Amino acid sequence: MRVLVAVAEIGQGVQLEEALNRAGFEARWDAAQAAGPAGGSFAPEVVILDADHLGKRLAAVAEAWRTHAAVPGVIAIGASAAAREHAPAARVTLLAPTASLATLGGALEDAAKLRLASGLRWPVLRAALGLPPADNEPATWAATVLHARRVELEIARSALRWHARSYATPTALLDQLRDERVLTVPELETAAHIDGTLTVQTLITLGPLDAAQTARLLWTLASMQAIELTPEVRDVATAPRRALDELRRHLRARADRLAHSTYYDVLELTPLADYPEIEAAYQLVGTRYAPRVLGRHDLADLAAIAAPTWQLVEKARSVLVDDAARGRYTDWLRAHLPELVTTWAIDAKAIAAASEAFARGQRALGAGDVHRAMSELAAACRHHPGHPEYEANLGWARFRVQVAGGKEPIAAATAERRAVEDLLLGRKPWPRALVALAMLCAAAGDADAARWHLHGALAADPTLPAAQQLAQRLGLRRQS
Asked: Of 38-42, 197-201, 358-362, 378-382, where does mean pLDDT reach its minimum?
């Protein structure tokens, strides 16, 4: 086995070279290649990197070697904290400088065996199949896919292991493979599940191909660039992808938002809320975060926070609807409120003042007095900062005032839209806030986003007059 010892320190490099050559490897030390491939005629099957020397550059250098024409396996040697920190991201086996020769030899053997699983690229695919280099074009596809059906399973599994929780999204090349009739009927049926909303680990289980053949197929398609594997939803070109992407962002934001908060923040209501209001809030939160909703989506790495998210909702409801438990919780809040972060556990006078100012602001908007509306809505937000409906409608009024003052409409609407979108992340659906956001999207020239948010508003409150009127203007079709 040809081994390149790409370490910078002369003592360590010479020592490794001599020890490996005595053990039967064809080893060569080259400090000039410690920071990445630098030419030369030696084509290594495995490269040993110096993780202590490279530190945070380890991942980039490892990837540079994996894209080298020789397609070598990569391992690293190091003992520093930086080496241990960056080795996982570099996807390398990290050995201590004091590792025995037997341990080092075993790591080299494993790296050489799996070197052709190091990346999802066309040249690596061809090399793994024992096929000569060729362009990724229709004339080569049939033979490549045929050989890939019989590739050693461990190669496909090892290559996909790093992408188990990545979403698989089809590219135009997958359609070309269908048109060229390169795939079998079971492969086509399996590929039909690939829509950008399912992860590799989910697709492997769906069939009709068995898990082994599905792994080979996904490895092949990804290496051919017929599908893309990404840790996040790759784009929102379809409604299912958009819904999944939005839900993932909501889950992340909600976990951050509710850290060190109160049960009132969990349900997004004030301490003045009575039983019907608590139940209504609970139901509305459930339309986004309940298990029956989240269970319809492949949440990948966020699946672990779905259950705790809903358990907190259930706990908040159980406490707030029970008079005795709510009383004890109120006593606890009085003692601990300075330690908490809250939008909703505020003084009753502030709640009333904010509600009255918001109502005046809405009336001013209806009358076309945008300056008065902005003033009143700003007052509502001062009394109750962070309230989604108050803040979103203030954004709409502020946009109207800016346009009246001569500001370019699309730029003004885009800035306000971003602020409102960030504000609504991690919350339950707020219909009137979503209407304001839909109007900002429409003003920014994004009619699709306006219809998307408007649909969310109508799903939460089908009777909302402003939403119904805007739906007519935008030509939104109601969904059952």
From this structure: 38-42
What pLDDT, in 10s, does the model give residues 327-340? Answer: 999 999 999 999 99
User: Do the beta carbons of residue 3 and residue 48 sit within 8 Å?
Assistant: yes
Q: Give span(s): CATH 3.40.50.2300, the chain.
A: 2-113
Query: What superfamily does domain 262-339 belong to in CATH?
Result: DnaJ domain (1.10.287.110)
| pLDDT tens-digit series, residues 135-144 | 999 999 999 9
Angle at 144 between CA 143 and CA 149, to 5 degrees: 100
| Residues 6+ positions from 74 with CB-CB distance below 8 Å | 46, 47, 49, 62, 65, 66, 90, 92, 111, 115, 118
In the predicted model, is pLDDT for residue 478 greater than 90? Answer: no
Give pTM, 2 decimals.
0.81
Cβ distance 197 to 167 under 8 Å? Answer: yes
Mean pLDDT score, 22-36: 94
| pLDDT band per the 50, 70, 90 thresholds, residue 301 | very high
Residue 480 has pLDDT above 50, yes or no: no
Q: How far apart are CA 472 and CA 462, in angstroms?
A: 13
Sign, CA torsion 12/18/19/21: positive
- Closest to 71 (Cα-Cα) out of 39, 29, 117: 117
Closest CA to 144 of 132, 152, 156: 132
Q: Which of 257, 40, 396 is nearest to 29 (CA)?
A: 40
- Which residues of the chain are in CATH 1.25.40.10 domains? 348-474
Report residue 413's pLDDT band, with 50, 70 and 90 as the boundaries. Answer: very high
Nearest in space to 23 (alpha carbons), one of 112, 81, 103, 89: 103
Q: Are 476 and 443 in contact (CB under 8 A)?
A: no
| Position with higher pLDDT, 345 vs 39 | 345
Sign of the CA dihedral 286, 292, 297, 300?
A: positive
Tell me how far CA of residue 261 lies from CA of 255, 256, 258, 266, 321, in angstroms: 10, 10, 5, 8, 18
- Nearest-angstrom CA–CA distance, 44 and 66: 11
Is 101:18 a contact under the CB 8 Å cutoff?
A: no
Does domain 348-474 fall under CATH 1.25.40.10? My reply is: yes
Say which residues have a Cβ less than 8 Å from residue 435's Cβ, sequence separation at least 6. 453, 454, 457, 464, 466, 467, 470
Q: Are 120 and 159 in contact (CB under 8 A)?
A: yes
The CATH homologous superfamily for domain 2-113 is: Response regulator (3.40.50.2300)
Candidates 118, 116, 141, 119; CA nearest to 130 is: 116
Question: Exposed (0-12), middle (13-18) or buried (19+): which is 360, by Cβ within 10 Å?
Answer: middle
What Cα–Cα distance (Å) separates residue 444 from each residue in 396, 403, 418?
12, 12, 11
